[in-house]
Each structure stands twice: as structure tokens, then as C-alpha cells.
Design goal:
With 285 residues, the chain is an alpha/beta fold. The protein is built from nine helices and ten strands. The protein has a ten-stranded mixed beta sheet with strand order 3-2-1-4-5-10-9-6-7-8, with helices on both faces. It is elongated and about 80 Å long.
Length: 285
């Protein structure tokens, strides 16, 4: 469990994915592997049977042409992937990463992530679909499937240019997952040197205040400059607004539960905050 895996696709978010992966690799003193995964399009998964409307000879000719087109398309995709990885390698190396590798793979993103998981310290993925409010747009299913499937941290980068973070926000609810998130942050060198705001959304009760104080003590003991805030309202409304007001560069929160029932909940707070956040989100186990 020692590599940072960055999955890039050549779209507008790719530079930010590379830069966040570089920053993470340097913070964690870990090797970086840049990945480009070629997924087969369903539209090209099988030829159409035209035997009922054209002659067998014509069909053979057409199928041969389709096969040739598929082969050409595959070769072009592989060459484009190799060029993308080479440019990404140059960018990462120029930013200071020396333990660096690239890999071109085939298949589904989630299948590849599960295969690499035993050697992964962190996965860095591209931007989620961002919504104007909680009722719009489902989270990119590729990203959601990876986050739900793997048991390693996942950093989801936005398209915005990378800026070295100085402050981050922890979305905290006092649950076991929330306490594990705080403990993981305290143990890891990834966020060392950054100040942290621990945010709880909900009713102002003595129990909630005590939970925040416990989180404060754990982080302060690890050397963090910590502040806490308890704000009435729903997390998906309160937290994005606080991030913008605080100028925080990163949102940190716990992942989904892994029970069969929890995996069916599309409207979870994790999913909603991923869709709404304008800053990268680090999901911790």
C-alpha cells in the first residue's frame, strides 16, 4: 500500500488531476503512477446483423470493414493514450516527482481500481458533475462506483487550476465514520502544515459541542491549527457556503458505509457534497 494512482482521461480536468496527484505524492513521500484506461464503447461492442436485408457477400464485406474500423479506432486510441501519458509524465516530473511511472490499461475504471487497490495509498480521479442545487445531476457513475468499491482514500479533483491548499474543512457529524475521519487526518502526513476547520451541521446541543471538542483535541494533539464550527442547517447547504467563506482549498469527509442497504442510497450526504463542492474532495476510509 504505497502508490498514488492518478487516473487521467485527457479532458479539461486532467491538468488539475495531475497537479493534485503530484502534491499528494510529495506530501506522502510516495511514488506516483499515472493511468489512462481505455474503456470499450458499448456502441462498438458487437456488429449488427444485417443478414435479413442484404446478401451474405455484402454482409461479409461490411463486417470486414467494421472490423477494420474498430482496429483502426483502437490503434488511434492507444496512440492518443500513450501521448497523453507522456505529456502527463513531463508535467509531473517538472513539478518535482522523481518516482514516477505511467500505465495504459483496458477495461472499466472500477475493475482496474480494485485490481490495483492492494498497492494503493490514494486514488486521484477527475471532476465530479457539479450541480447548482441538490436536486440536479447525479454524480458521475464511474467516480461513485470507485468510491463505493475501494477501501482506499480517493481524492476527487475539480477542473479548477490547482492551488496549493493552506486550509481544509472536515465535514463532521459525530458518527463513527466522522471520528475515524478525524483520526485518519491526525495520523497521516498528507495534510500536515495546513490549518483545519471542523464543521458540524445541525442542532446546537451539549452532546454535539462535546463531539466537536473531542475532534478538536485529537487534531490539536497531532499539531494542527484547529477551529470548529457548529451551524444549524443541512450539511449540503451549510458546508459549501462555509468553504467559500473560509477560502478553504479542500473538503475532507468520510466515505459511504458498505452495507448492502447503504450502497443503494443515492441521496447520501457524501454523494450530495461531492456533486455540490467547488473544491476538491478527499474521501477517507
Amino acid at each position: 500500500m504505497n502508490k498514488i494512482y492518478a487516473c487521467i482521461d485527457g479532458l479539461a480536468k486532467t491538468p488539475a488531476v495531475i497537479d493534485w496527484a503530484v502534491w499528494s505524492a510529495l506530501q506522502l513521500d510516495a511514488p506516483l503512477e499515472l493511468l489512462h484506461i481505455l474503456e470499450r464503447s458499448p456502441a462498438h461492442s458487437a456488429p449488427i446483423n444485417y443478414s435479413g436485408s442484404i446478401g451474405f457477400g455484402a454482409q461479409d464485406s461490411l463486417l470486414q470493414e467494421l472490423s477494420t474500423l474498430d482496429e483502426t479506432r483502437g490503434k488511434l486510441a492507444q496512440e492518443a493514450g500513450r501521448q497523453l501519458l507522456e505529456v502527463a509524465r513531463e508535467r509531473a516530473f517538472a513539478a518535482g516527482v522523481t518516482r514516477l511511472d505511467t500505465r495504459l490499461r483496458h477495461g472499466e475504471l472500477v475493475d482496474n481500481a480494485l485490481e490495483m487497490e492492494p498497492d494503493a495509498k490514494l486514488f486521484v480521479l477527475g471532476e465530479h458533475e457539479r450541480a447548482a442545487d441538490a436536486s440536479k445531476i447525479h454524480l458521475d457513475h464511474h467516480i461513485e462506483r470507485v468510491i463505493r468499491a475501494v477501501k482506499r482514500p480517493v481524492l476527487v479533483a475539480t477542473e479548477a487550476p490547482f492551488v496549493t491548499p493552506k486550509r481544509f474543512v472536515i465535514a463532521f457529524d459525530g458518527s463513527e465514520t466522522g471520528r475515524k475521519t478525524v483520526a485518519t487526518v491526525a495520523r497521516s502526513p498528507m495534510l500536515t502544515g495546513l490549518s483545519v476547520l471542523v464543521v458540524m451541521a445541525g442542532d446546537d446541543t451539549p452532546h454535539a459541542r462535546q463531539q466537536l471538542e473531542d475532534a478538536h483535541q485529537v487534531l490539536a494533539a497531532a499539531g494542527f491549527d484547529v477551529s470548529v464550527e457548529l451551524t444549524p442547517g443541512e450539511p449540503e447547504q451549510v458546508i459549501p457556503a462555509l468553504i467559500k467563506a473560509q477560502g478553504a482549498g479542500l473538503l475532507v469527509m468520510g466515505a459511504y458505509g458498505h452495507s448492502r442497504i447503504r450502497q443503494l442510497i443515492i441521496g447520501s450526504t457524501t454523494t450530495t457534497l461531492l456533486r455540490l463542492s467547488e473544491v476538491p474532495v478527499l474521501i477517507l476510509r
